[in-house]
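Consider the following input, taken from an annotated entry for Delta(14)-sterol reductase LBR (Heliornis fulica).
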Amino acid sequence: MPNRRFADGEVVMGRWPGSVLYYEVQVTSYDDVSHIYTVKYKDGTELALKESDIRSQSSFKNRKSHSSSSSPSRRSSSRSQSRSPGRPAKGRRRSSSQSREHKDDRKKIIEETNLALLVLFCLSKLNENNTPRYNGEPESMERNDTSFVILEQKSKPDLETGRGLEPYSLRPRKEEKKKEIYLEKNIFETIKKNEKASVKPKELEFGGRFGTFVLILFLPATVFYLLLMCKQDDPSLMNFPTLPTLESLWDARTFGIFLLWFFLQALFYLLPIGKVVEGLPLSNGRKLQYQINGFYAFVLTAAVIGTLLYFQFELHYLYDHFMQFAVSAAVFSLGLSIYLYIRSLRAHEEDLAPGGNSGYLIYDFFTGHELNPRIGSFDLKYFCELRPGLIGWVVINLVMLFAEMKIHNRSMPSLPMILVNGFQLLYVVDALWNEEAVLTTMDITHDGFGFMLAFGDLVWVPFVYSLQAFYLVGHPTAISWPAAAAITVLNCIGYYVFRSANSQKNNFRRNPADPKLAYLKFIPTATGKGLLVTGWWGFVRHPNYLGDIIMALAWSLPCGFNHILPYFYVIYFICLLVHREARDEHHCKQKYGLAWERYCQRVPYRIFPYIY
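Applying the prediction step yields:
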């Protein structure tokens, strides 16, 4: 087993993949199995390099001193000796061999320097079309055309001579225009290789293997605890509910109805209605296609529910067997997660999720091993993200509204129940109407489809998010009209922040050059994307999370203040979003490097302005 050559923390010269340019980098880690070094560039970019692509700083100093010590006269003498006809045959053979080696080496260097030359070409084009800013200039950047910055520069370079570029070039050469097409192809291939240079995650989230194992048990237990508490007359935290028998938690008919619901939504998803759009590029450059018909599925579901009500179908059955439906959904999500993990073992490496390829069974099972599992054109993750659970949430709320009227002999639902149903209906309809926006979320672009998302989409969303409506059935609350108006205004404020922030982000991601977004300023990054520093995203780093929390509070206030149980959703949502914010911070710091640090200086507050 070869010994490790460079230590962690050592500053060395790292070769930029696909070129002969060497940068000053710092070794951060070493993989004993693959013998790959992880190095960090000055701008914060991290790449995985082989040992052959890393050199000590002293080798560059020696190269420089050696070249400077050779005088022109000595080089001339060497050339004259190699051409002298009086030299022995052995010397002539050596000269011929060196000539061939030099020719092969020159050919290799010409191929390797393609990437470096294209950098100069891109910079020159950027200089012609725009007014790029370099380190040291003001951060208030105006809009540029979509471009990317690969090399960090401390001063504005001379694009004619190439002077001013920081990296070391072993053998610089003149630019050849006839190779521009070839160079352009090579640079994008290199960028794609660098993005997936390290497939396995360096850090495990959610507490690692032990933490994910605990969560697999804790999440279902939390759902059942909350539902049992809502059934009690006194749902205080100190009054622990009586545990039901295992036989009472399972009902075959209930499980059959859940399966019918799931496959009905799958049928609506497969209908050839709505538009087909492409998602964001994957690591291999491929774009998946998605059927955008979630709102049509919601309308068809409403028609089905209306038909059942017209024929006086008893929807109260769902309320009476609410716990059994939750158990059925949990069992189904567990079975689906097992299927997803088994099929992911045969998936190609480029189809695996960046954060779910740790090599640990429990961890990958929880976070999701495969990024976009599909059966033909049926995308399992995308379908579960918005359809069965989200639409089911609205159906459950409606059932709770009818259950309240039946149990309390009311001709009209209570004002708190109307507010809860109305607020949450708006949230779901907005998500389905803007279905295309979910394609840019972390759930779709980064997280794999495993137990975390399967349980969250099919169990947590419909049965925990409907907690306020379920609580009001057994614990009616009265509120005044002025209080209802104030709560409505609060919800509208939260919705406005949430929707406008998300729309701003999604429109910018889709088309940064859109003239409608010309007022937005951003910080360019090495990935080619921009970090917004004006608008909502210049106010706080995650304004959509702020809108979510405000709406969650408005959903809980109609339940009054007799018990803390209805506010579990607010507490959970704050904890969830703080955790997501921490994940986003870590992910963005690794992805954008120095640009992210500059963004954080411009936008210091994360979720709550002037607080956090």
